Amino acid sequence: MKNNDLRVVLIMAGHTAAGKSTFSKALCKSSGITYIGAGDIKRGFVENYSAKDSLNPLLLDKDYTGATIKAIEMLNEHECVLVDATFFKKDDVLLLNLKLERCLKIQ
Q1: For residue 83, what are the β-bridge partners?
Q2: HSE on the CB side for 19, CA within 13 Å?
Q3: Which of 67, 87, 93, 106 would be 38's cystine partner, CB 3.0–4.6 Å?
Q4: Please, are residues 70 and 42 in contact by the beta-carbon 8 Å criterion?
Q5: CA–CA gap between residue 96 and residue 27 (Å, rounded)
Q6: Model pTM?
Q7: What is the C-alpha separation between 13 and 95, in angstroms, rounded?
């Protein structure tokens, strides 16, 4: 990735069952944006994942970290990626944003 190339990370944030994934997938399909489902990342950490696991704070941190790493990897190949994740607090979105900023500055 060249320093003068514009890369965009969209973060779809909202409550559980608000329609984030449905909207995100439709948007990505219609516009060619690369989709990253943070829930899929979280499911990779837990065997027999269930809804109760979605509230586990340790998994949430892994989920956001995993989504950050995946977004950065995908930005090397795509100009725009969308991270679809359930965020329980405003600080969660800020945390993901800070992780992305730090990692992108390192590259």
Answers
A1: 11, 36
A2: 3
A3: 67
A4: no
A5: 21
A6: 0.68
A7: 12
